[in-house]
Design brief:
The complex is a heterodimer of chains A (about 260) and B (about 290). Chain A is mostly helical. Chain A contains nine helices and no strands. The chains are: A mainly alpha (about 260), B alpha/beta (about 290).
């Protein structure tokens, strides 16, 4: 009984270590193919459109409502200490340091990441990836590298849009709805937000871009040859990306603090 | 290692199908692909257990066998999509199992493959699918690419269908588009993975005829896996049977039908109508009703 439990634990551990190793090899291979010619600018542009432009609506929507909720919660919390004037600072710092990069990455995972897994998985199942191989076109270079590169490029942009919209959402609720002074909102923000907060947020966004595209393309590329396998791969991709984003966020924050 | 590719269109302009046939016959003495003791286990199941097979140059060779018996796995070994656990895969006497990705890609330039599902790229229309290998692997100008693609589409009977996307095509049209894509680079060898699976008998016959017609016209070596008995006897020069992970019989098509191997006899007796098996008639394009 105990022996079988230990054996099961050992198998699971070995399986996890093996999977982590394969994922790391996949990432290294992707980066290696990214810097080798031919460079596929058109593919990268298509992916920037798919991951970036098509995610704009959901980013704007979540950014606006996140900022508005922060405005509401912040106002009632700060009012207890008579510090409503610091609402701009509270909203801006929360969004720029944490919520902007994390929520925009989670939104991209749900919208574009899952689609990446499904697209690549279907290409695997229908032998389109094998077809690329037979035509001596490397699938890592043609399919995977442009997606990862595009994610790294667009995530900071999406994050900055999320930040701007979120801060304006907090302004709308705090200033226009609850009567906080407009000058207090903006001046508190200006005095407390530093340049390191901004680039720290961008740094997080870039690393989240790597995580989302890496995990989602890996899961699609290695899907099993069935509809059920593709469904499982898509679910695993979204869950693993989201969990890794939150874990990585903690470590990056602890380093940046 | 670099072998100049033979352009099917140029070959056509050189003259006739006879030119290609003569050329193929001259080189037919050495097998273009040789498998030696190829073994492969997938998911703990032994699939290939020491396959030995010689594929004659410029001929149509069909591998038959049970569904799930490893025929497609065998085909994927020939082009290096799978590596054997043991054994050699020799293409023009080069063991491709020992090649790195760059060298393997050079060897793959000799090949094309028509997949079971045609494997057309969903995001590209038919024209772009056929043009894909030309755009990726040659420095041809767009006008030349267009001329070649249109010529290939005409050869497979898809004139005017270039703007359609794979989702808008029927099964037969997809196979035709896949065949056009396979032909466009003028490969020396084309691998066909069950090219007529999922098609109705008439359409299957049309695709088979198209394969034979294009093989005669362009002179490539065709390796096909199929279990379409008796159709394959009419279109193949050689037939081999994969059974329990080994090639148990390989012979010219007509000779194969007279095999004494009990398992092969049993297998080919299930599908065919008696008169087709015993007549020995070659069902070449245009000869059937």
């Amino acid at each position: 009984m105990v022996a079988s439990a230990v054996a099961g634990f050992g198998r699971t551990t070995l399986g996890l270590v093996g999977e982590m190793g394969r994922m790391m090899v996949f990432l290294i291979s992707t980066v290696a193919w990214m810097v080798r010619p031919p460079f596929r600018f058109l593919q990268v542009l298509k992916q920037i459109h798919f991951i970036g432009v098509k995610s704009l609506f959901v980013i704007v929507l979540t950014g606006a409502f996140t900022g508005m909720v922060l405005g509401l919660q912040g106002y009632y919390s700060l009012r207890k200490f008579g510090a409503e004037g610091w609402l701009g600072s509270a909203v801006a710092l929360s969004i720029i340091r944490e919520l902007g990069p994390v929520l925009s990455a989670l939104m991209v995972t749900g919208r574009a990441g899952s689609a990446m897994t499904a697209e690549i998985g279907i290409m695997r199942i229908t032998e389109q990836i094998d077809a690329l191989d037979t035509m001596a076109v490397n699938p890592m270079q043609y399919l995977i590298a442009p997606k990862v590169l595009a994610s790294v490029l667009v995530m900071p942009m999406l994050c900055s849009i999320f930040d701007l919209i979120g801060i304006y959402g907090g302004y709308l609720v705090g200033v226009e709805l609850l009567g906080v002074s407009s000058g207090a909102y903006t001046s508190s923000m200006e005095s407390s937000v530093e340049w390191k907060d901004v680039y720290g947020g961008f740094l997080k966004a870039i690393s989240f871009g790597v995580i989302v595209s890496w995990v989602c393309t890996y899961k699609g590329y290695n899907t099993t040859m069935s509809a059920e396998g593709l469904g499982t791969a898509t679910t695993e991709a979204v869950v693993l990306s989201s969990v890794l984003i939150l874990i990585w966020d903690y470590f990056v924050t602890s380093v940046l603090m | 290692m670099k072998t100049p590719l033979i352009d099917p269109l140029q070959r056509g302009s050189n003259g006739s199908p006879e030119f290609a046939a003569t050329k193929a016959a001259g080189a037919a003495s050495t097998p273009v692909i040789r498998l030696r003791g190829v073994e492969k286990t997938l998911g703990g199941q032994p699939v290939l257990q020491g396959v030995n097979l010689d594929v004659p140059r410029g001929k149509v060779t069909t591998v038959i066998g049970k569904s799930g018996g490893g025929k497609s796995v065998l085909l994927k070994h020939m082009i290096g999509l799978l590596k054997p656990d043991r054994g050699q895969v020799l293409v023009d006497e080069v063991d491709i199992t020992r090649l790195g990705s760059h060298e393997l890609n050079e060897v793959r330039k000799k090949f094309a493959m028509l997949f079971q599902s045609a494997a057309l790229f969903d995001s590209l229309n038919v024209f772009e699918n056929v043009a894909f290998p030309l755009r990726e692997k040659t420095k041809m100008k767009e006008a030349e690419i267009e001329r070649k693609v249109l010529e290939m589409l005409e050869a497979v009977g898809l004139t005017g269908m270039g703007h359609k996307f794979p989702a808008e095509l029927s099964g037969g049209m997809r196979k035709r588009a896949g065949l056009a894509r396979a032909l466009v680079m003028g490969p020396e060898i084309i691998l066909f993975d069950e090219p007529t699976t999922g098609l109705d008998p008439l359409l299957a016959r049309t695709i088979n005829d198209l394969i034979v017609e294009t093989q005669r016209k362009f002179g490539f070596t065709a390796v096909m896996v199929s279990h379409e008995i008796p159709e394959i006897f009419g279109i193949s020069d050689y037939v081999a049977m994969l059974l329990d992970g080994v090639i148990v019989e390989m012979a010219p098509s007509e000779e194969f039908q007279r095999t004494r191997h009990p398992a092969v006899r049993e297998f080919i007796a299930v599908g065919p109508r008696p008169e087709v098996v015993t007549s020995g008639e070659s069902r070449r394009p245009g000869t059937h009703a």
